[in-house]
Design goal:
homodimer; DNA-binding; 4-stranded antiparallel sheet; alpha+beta
Chain lengths: 213, 213
DNA sequence: TGATGTCGGTGACTTTTGTCACACTGCATG
DNA sequence: CATGCAGTGTGACAAAAGTCACCGACATCA
């Protein structure tokens, strides 16, 4: 039975939720699977649910006019999609792309429940506010980087963030992927990576980069 | 008496608030004045109130490491500062600068009231969510521009936005100010403006720019 | 083992943006 | 009205980033 699985996820990932809220979510949330590479959300799409990630990893990015994929941030188990909350509440369409980068499971909470949850469960309200705050801050960092920093610094920041978020020092990234995430060209990334390698910050290998220190 | 003035502002600028909420705000909000050029909020500052603009104009910008002022958006009468809500709720420090660009009046709502307002007044809750949504969207546009567009396009977008937000075709901006807002140099702006003038999009004058069409 | 495709390296070049230097203009102020 | 200053114009150059062309290394698979 799905309820038991959902219950387990909620207990593990959202322990701060009050018991009544947990029960409410267990009875009304739907579990949904996404394959790696599958889209959770697309620009212009209308959201009907708020999304809580419970397994896997979701990449949020802004799509440029000719299909560029400008990376913003990752969502991990325990995170909610701030945009799905916002769009859900207002019935607005999404402004960003969300893609599962590996096998991912999410809880879908019908938008019709949002009002009630916000009003009746303080821990939910705090969770929502905290979600907004975190994502807002992430966007501010993104803006800082592209507004004030040159490519080399942006690349260094990007690699560091990848190492932190994905919790590994072996970054499974091709130069093309990085270039796409930073909206530049592969050659630029290749050259900058070489400099970083010479400076001893990384070690390059085929298909992955070892992040040192 | 201040209550009467506050009441008038609320009636005029926030007609969508339910009567009980209006009464609550009238009794607990404080009116505060800022001179043009005065800071409402500074990076690292701790917020103790949620801020509603009722008169004037507030400029939100991100501060770079060497004092650059990267423009994000304006707040006008009827708007709330999304960041003051977020920071207020979590007792976090602000990540941006907010500066009054003219004589400005705001309503300050003590953070201690936020929980109660969110829970008890549906129109407040909607207002907050809508505020988040709008500002989130603004940030996404900002990111679009700096991530995907070249200076000329960014400048065109910037001028258009100024004309819209400030509701005038006579933009009281010096080239230096524009350069600072877009985090580039005055010379670049001067040259691009000349191109735009030649293309017939604007007409330059000393100390102001006429935005045509 | 040869064919193919992805990944990465690199030189040469262009374009865009940033920097420096200096000149000009109109306004304000004493 | 002389002086100073903020605002602007502009040429020359430097630096950063983007583009193009092409190469080689490696993996996979028939």
């Amino acid at each position: 039975m799905n309820h038991a699985i959902i219950s387990e996820y909620i207990e593990r990932l959202f322990p701060q939720f009050e018991p009544a809220l947990k029960r409410k979510l267990i009875e009304s949330a739907k579990l949904r699977d996404f394959e790696g590479g599958e889209m959770l959300m697309q620009t212009g799409q209308n959201m009907r649910s708020t999304v809580l990630i419970v397994e896997g990893m979701v990449k949020l990015y802004r799509e440029g006019e000719d299909g560029q994929e400008f990376f913003m941030y990752y969502l991990q188990p325990g995170n909610a999609c701030a945009l799905s909350m916002i769009c859900a509440t207002k019935q607005e369409t999404s402004q960003v792309m969300a893609k599962a980068i590996e096998q991912t499971k999410v809880l879908m909470i019908p938008i019709s429940l949002m009002d009630q949850l916000m009003r009746d469960y303080k821990t939910w309200y705090y969770f929502v506010i905290e979600t907004y705050r975190m994502r807002f801050e992430e966007l501010l960092f993104v803006i800082d980087n592209i507004a004030f920093k040159a490519m080399d610094e942006r690349l260094a920041f990007y690699l560091k963030k990848q190492a932190t978020d994905l919790n590994t020092k072996e970054l499974q990234l091709t130069h093309s992927e990085i270039a796409s995430d930073l909206n530049t060209s592969r050659e630029v990334i290749s050259r900058l990576l070489k400099k970083m390698e010479q400076a001893g910050a990384i070690k390059m290998h085929r298909n992955y980069i070892a992040y040192l220190s």
